[in-house]
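Bench notes, afternoon.
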Amino acid sequence: MENSGIFLFGRPRVHQLFFTRRIGLTDDGAPVPIDYGAKVTGRIGKYNVGFLQVQTRKLGDVSSGIGIPRQQFTVMRVKRDILKRSFIGAVFVNRQGAHLRPGTSL
């Protein structure tokens, strides 16, 4: 897929800030409906850019401790290649509405 690596940052499973394949799944791997999502990637001059926004649906009764709240995922990435095999960039990651269990990550 074109620009599939735009959101990769650091070494996978060591310094990875964000893993897109976890959106729409509970910590146990059960599916959570996605209300909407958008992904835009491309180049602006010498910069590679990416933007991802997804909202998942609320499930069950959150106040009872049994449900899952509606969640918003936002990721932005800017990256510029320098020299022959190096790059510099930044990643912004935001997740709202989440209740994580200890020892879990985004």
